[in-house]
């Protein structure tokens, strides 16, 4: 129970097979109490499995955290709104009396960005920067302020991506947003080091999360497949290209997040660690 007495705030924690949920449960299993947040999504923005199982986003995750014997605060928030981010952090601190760990995991729903840069809609560009980058900045800003005020140090962990180190075609918005997260991680680490607050990033490759993708939904329809069938083909093909023979599971990412959130990482800051089975060395 290395995180006994600590409080964590995890964004984007509502997915049934997502990194946010896996992270919240991992931190709770190590003794942390957790605040979890996500946006309320319409059924069209949910993976089919969540719709079919009547998954209830962070409310379902909250039940699981309680089952581990930890306190939990589920908060629905739109991270494209700066005031909601400030309120989110304030609610977590007011409820638990402290904040020790900030995990910036939320990301924009992918798919509409998967076009050449000459075809990329400006609104889609701004949306990706808003959720994937600006929200990370604001969570770092407001959580960092609270950590500085309390004077107990802290841990901030940002979920970046392989795409934040190596771009690919049809990925201008996503890669730009994740490259920016790595720069933000380094700058924030320097700004907060004097206060005993570390800031690091985790950079996953492909992850088997069943996350929603408009592109996958459209491609599946064109091929006469269900979205889940098409997703399974992508997972299989990606695994074959990965040196370790599979793509990451959400728990693989959560394991590294928990290390960076814990006491054994106290002398590590400003770093961006890959979790990709050997796909990229950088």
Automatic annotation (TrEMBL):
Keywords: Oxidoreductase. Gene3D superfamilies: NAD(P)-binding Rossmann-like Domain. GO terms for molecular function: oxidoreductase activity. It comes from the Eukaryota. InterPro entries: NAD(P)-bd_dom_sf, SDR_fam. Belongs to the short-chain dehydrogenases/reductases (SDR) family. This is Short-chain dehydrogenase/reductase ARMGADRAFT_1018421.
């Amino acid at each position: 129970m290395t995180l006994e007495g600590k409080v964590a705030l995890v964004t984007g924690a509502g997915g049934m097979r997502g990194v946010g949920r896996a992270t919240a449960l991992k931190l709770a299993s190590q003794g942390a109490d957790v605040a979890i947040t996500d946006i309320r999504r319409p059924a069209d923005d949910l993976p089919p499995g969540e719709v079919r199982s009547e998954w209830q986003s962070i409310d379902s995750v909250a039940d699981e955290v309680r089952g581990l014997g930890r306190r939990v605060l589920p908060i629905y928030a739109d991270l494209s709104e700066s005031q909601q981010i400030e309120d989110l952090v304030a609610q977590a601190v007011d409820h638990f009396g402290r904040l020790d760990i900030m995990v910036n995991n939320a990301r924009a729903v992918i798919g509409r960005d998967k076009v050449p840069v000459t075809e990329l809609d400006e609104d889609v560009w701004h949306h990706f920067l808003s959720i994937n980058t600006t929200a990370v900045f604001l969570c770092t800003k407001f959580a960092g302020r609270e950590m500085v005020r309390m004077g107990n140090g802290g841990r901030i962990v940002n979920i970046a991506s392989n795409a934040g180190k190596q771009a690919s075609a049809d990925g201008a918005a996503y890669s730009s947003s994740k490259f920016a997260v790595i720069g933000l991680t380094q700058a924030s680490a320097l700004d907060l080091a004097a206060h005993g607050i570390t800031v690091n990033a985790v950079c996953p490759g492909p992850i088997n999360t069943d996350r929603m993708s408009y592109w996958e939904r459209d491609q599946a329809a064109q091929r006469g497949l269900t979205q889940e069938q098409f997703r399974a083909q992508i997972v299989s093909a990606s695994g074959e290209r990965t040196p370790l023979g599979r793509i990451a599971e959400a728990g693989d990412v959560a394991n590294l997040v928990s290390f960076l959130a814990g006491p054994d990482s106290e002398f590590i800051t400003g770093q961006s660690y890959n979790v990709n089975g050997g796909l990229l060395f950088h």
